[in-house]
Amino acid sequence: MSKRIQEILANMSLKQKIYHLQQVTTATYLTTKESRFEIITGPNSAVKLDKEMVFDVGTSLNLVGAETMIDAESNYLKNSKYKIPLMIMQDVIHGHRTLYPINLAVAGSFDRDLAKEVAQMAAKEASLDGMSVTFAPMVDLVRDPRWGRVMESSGEDPYLNGEMAKATVEGYQGDMGPYNIAACVKHFAAYGAAEAGRDYNTVDMSERTLREYYLPAYKAAVDAGVKMLMTAFNIVDGVPCVGNEHLVKDILRDEWGFDGVVISDYGAVEEMIVHGAAENKKEAAYLAMKAGCDIEMMSSCYAEYLEELINEGKITEEMVDKSVLRILDLKEDLGILDKPYRSVNVEESKAVQLSPEHREKARRGAEESAVLLKNDGILPLSKNVSSVALIGPLANTGEIHGSWHCGGKAEETISVYEGLKNLLGDKVKYAQGCQIEYDSCDTSLFDEACELAKNSECVVLCLGDHQEYSGEGNCRANIELPEVQYKLLDRILEVNKNVVVALFAGRPLAIQRLDKTAPAILDMWMPGTEGGNACANLLFGDAIPSGKITMTFPRALGQCPIYYNHYTTGRPKKEEDDEKFVRFTSCFLDMPNSPLYPFGYGLSYTSFEYSKLKMDKAGNIRLNVKNTGKRSGCEVVQLYVQENNPTVLRPKKELKAFKKVHLEAGKSTTVTFELNH
Ligand code: NOJ
């Protein structure tokens, strides 16, 4: 810690130091009517935010826009006695104004550079709007598609999660220059293991499972130099994460040596009372401070009770000092002690946001992330087609960003309809077909859609979920496609067999029925700002699918949790995908054990052949990969291991390395791996 921040600290009163640990909404500081309203009744109502403390608060969250940032920061500085600039944080999850595909999709590109570059671009847009910190990456390992937040994660594999965590942190933070922002890895720990995939629900697991599967990605972010970490809402081993000394103090601080800022999740310190872990706000403040949480987001237990706790000798002023120093250190690191407005720039922001360069990356990212789930040979479609019927509730909408769309706008997003028209002009005609609501039974638009399908050479059918059916607070007990969408597909197939389905969703869906009926399925996930162009390019062969799924697709929800790196059991069923029930083996009566699509799965328009696999004594592995098809394409070469006779059991299969290679038709290359981890 520099001398400068030690001096700042020395000049702060105890009250001011405590208030520096408080986080409120950035809108609190706007000079508009809305902000004054918000202080009393808005999201801040859980915070005892009085005039005395409001201009001593150290950090704020959320608010998009350069002008609003300037307004908020200048109002803060004008009224603040000590004039330590506010540090503004925001959920920049998969882009800021330009939205890239959701994180689950980007992970499926298996492209570290892509993950890094989209984070870099998002950081640039966000920094020009005055953001200093993003609440990302979210690296929670996930195994249950009911959980809405799987869209923010990179899936079910600890190694891949760690690689994506590292790339993303590097992308956001870079060398902490003016166009970088600090990253905040979350949600520590194991938030992705909430029971039944229900948000905020209980997490319980062995220490071994925690350490082997759930912790590695947070650790990878820490090793990559992440500046902040957010604790999770859930309990682990009976203790809420924000007050969990074992997690925050023993593992994060002492074992991993993390000395960055720890922040609670939204209101989570006070929620310890609802959990039943704390009797009142004072005890909640005590538990969180003792565990090592520096910033309290959107509840005010610290502000109200830390002084009392210090006077009673329960916690020490040094503990508060340490937390304040960490925050000041980050402010210094970001340069905001000297430049309170940091990189905010109204004009530059306008020029950079949605720039051709950013749009291009968004399009390529969506092309690289899409997964071809099924193709009976109909794809790619020919651009010489005479007429295309574009049908479906996701065909003509810009709401294909996915949750956490930050500053992104639907009207600035290329819908599939626009994308197809950009490629094929007025050969494309559109009919909605049905409503998007998951409980809709309305078939009144079927006839119009079928008429169009009948009179067209081929049909592009855009099915799936509304973008807000996944994300925080959007868990589902049913992950099937809505019945009305299946009915629409069936009716269309009666009049035209040339149907390809473009699927949009923020999670793996249980689409066994779709797999049986649709001739081709291209999973676009939630592709972001350039989703429509990417979809058109992929369907018509201007881009070749290469994405792989990083979260298993179940045949039915009853198989969940389902993931590839599971143990063998003492009574495995011999053929996992055998339909036959084998009594007294580990299986279901009514369904195979195997998933619909496994981790790492994804088709291409070309084919690849592996040969000459060799491993030397040092663990170096070489193999030959050949593009045996007629088109160029990318292949994700994945290296899995299985340990023989371990003392403590290991899963059947574990991903240990991967490389993505691009090969022209007929060409081959040697791929090497060093198996040293
Ligand atoms: C709650 C979410 O769990 C967290 O991920 C997010 O960063 C905060 N809200 C702030 O918006």
Structural class: alpha/beta
Integer-rounded radius of gyration? 26 Å
Number of helices: 22
Enumerate the spans where pLDDT stays under 50 for 5 or more consecutive residues: none
Largest sheet: 8 strands, parallel
Main sheet: strand order: 9-6-5-4-3-2-1-10
Bin the helical content.
Answer: 25-40%
Bound molecules: 1-deoxynojirimycin
Write structural notes for this entry.
By secondary structure, the protein is of the alpha/beta class. Helix content is 33%, strand content 16%. It has 22 helices and 21 strands. The strands form five sheets. It has an eight-stranded parallel beta sheet with strand order 9-6-5-4-3-2-1-10. The protein has a six-stranded mixed beta sheet with strand order 11-16-15-14-12-13, sandwiched between helices. The chain has a three-stranded antiparallel beta sheet with strand order 17-18-21, with no helix packed on it. Helix 5 links the parallel strand 2 (59-61) and strand 3 (87-90). Helix 7 (112-128) packs parallel to helix 8. The chain is globular, with a radius of gyration of 26 Å. It starts with a helix and ends with a strand. The model has no long low-confidence stretch (mean pLDDT 96). 1-deoxynojirimycin (NOJ) is lined by residues 61, 91, 135, 186, 265-266, 472.
In a nutshell, what does this entry contain?
The chain is an alpha/beta fold.
Name a few traits of the molecule.
22 helices; 677 residues; 6-stranded mixed β-sheet; binds 1-deoxynojirimycin; 16% strand; alpha/beta; 33% helix
